[in-house]
Amino acid sequence: MKTRITELLGCEYPIIQGGMAWVAEHTLASAVSNAGGIGLIAGGSAPIDYLREQIRLCKEKTDKPFGVNIMLMSPNADDLAQLCIDEGVKVITTGAGNPGKYMAAWKEAGIKVMPVVPSVALAKRMEKSGADAVIAEGTESGGHIGENTTMCLVPQVVDAVEIPVIAAGGIADGRGMAASFMLGAEGVQIGTRFLASEECQIHPTFKDLVIKAKDTDNIVTGRYTGHPCRNIKTKFAKKLATGEKEGTLSPEEFEQLTVGALRRAVVDGDVDSGSFLCGAISGMVNEIKTCADIVKEINDGAEKLLKI
Ligand code: TUI
Asked: Of ligand 1's atoms, which has the minimum distance to the CA of residue 122?
């Protein structure tokens, strides 16, 4: 399927892997890029040396285009933003903030920039700042989320900007991709489906939770901290949600409990104190497959539906 996104990024399929903090390292990113999509390495709050190494390892594993996600709440976002320029990264996505202050330098370096936006207002601002595309991310997504849904947000962003729009949040198969295209998107960003891939390096317990999750095994925590996050509904997530709802955990205590919780989920598979960030579509993800199979299946499924 050729769209302005495949043209912009030089990839075969308009499928971008989500820049999942702690999850999206070079093995996953290179597998998605080799499959014809765009793999992303997540900067997260990683030390600069870690990200540099991941970028270099990714280059060894693929000669296809790949990108880096800059999480703008990271204390070292400035350093990671510059590192991408120094390492010749071709594609940058951003999350959890407004990347306006980096835009001129990234564009000067010839980087394709695609900020994640949770609102029409930010999409318009990003277009004005020179973004090449925007990723309209609905609240169905895993991790840090906005309030609007993919179904409502995507067509409104499509109407508001001229640049191509990538839909994100709640997309895990050809139907979701076709639906996104019917809303006017020209690409999709997919995270949760890739958690259950052969190449994804997360702890086996995390993959198991994704595969076994039903439609209702999903919960948003942390609205009162200003950083709402969608997770798999583990005992720990329920404890946080109850503390938030009943006022038995102050926002400060909540933040304290979640420091390092991503790492504890992804690296240790610790269900007692880890946060298993995951999208609302996990109930539909039931099988571990290779990234090549996932990308092809989603694209072929969408193409078939869109041709009817
Ligand atoms: O960034 C994400 N998802 C994430 S980041 C993350 S790591 C983290 N850990 C603890 C607290 C917060 C984050 C886990 N998942 N998705 C993209 C995304 N961006 N979702 C929402 C936004 C967003 C929100 C506000 C983007 C821009 C924005 O702008 C506010 C402004 O400055 O105008």
From this structure: 33
d(CA 67, CA 50): 15
Strand pairing class (143-144; 91-95): unpaired
Contact 3, 165 (CB under 8 A): no
CATH class of the region 4-200+285-306: alpha beta
* pLDDT tens track for 27-74: 999 999 999 999 999 999 999 999 999 999 999 999 999 999 999 999
For a substitution probing ligand 1, which of 45, 93, 144, 256 has the most ligand atoms within 8 Å of its CB? 144
Strand 187-190 and strand 15-17: the pairing is: parallel
pTM: 0.97
User: pLDDT grade, residue 308 (50/70/90)?
Assistant: low
Q: How far is CA 92 from the centre of its chain?
A: 12
CA 144–ligand 1 middle distance (angstroms): 5
Pocket test residue of 16, 22, 116, 227 for ligand 1, highest count of atoms within 8 A of CB: 116
User: Sheet holding 218-221: strands in order across?
Assistant: 143-144, 229-232, 218-221
d(CA 210, CA 288): 10
Domain chopping of the chain, boundaries: 4-200+285-306, 214-277
Residue 290: Cβ within 10 Å count: 13
> What whole-number distance in Å separates Cα of residue 304 and Cα of residue 174?
8
The dihedral built from the CA positions of residue 235, 243, 140 and 192, taken in this order, carries a sign that is: negative
Please list, in sequence order, all residues whose beta carbon lies within 8 angstroms of the beta carbon of residue 307, skipping any fewer than 6 positions away: none
**Arithmetic mean of pLDDT, 100-107:** 97
Ligand 1 close to Cβ of residue 96 (< 6 A): yes
116 alpha carbon – ligand 1 mean position (Å): 8
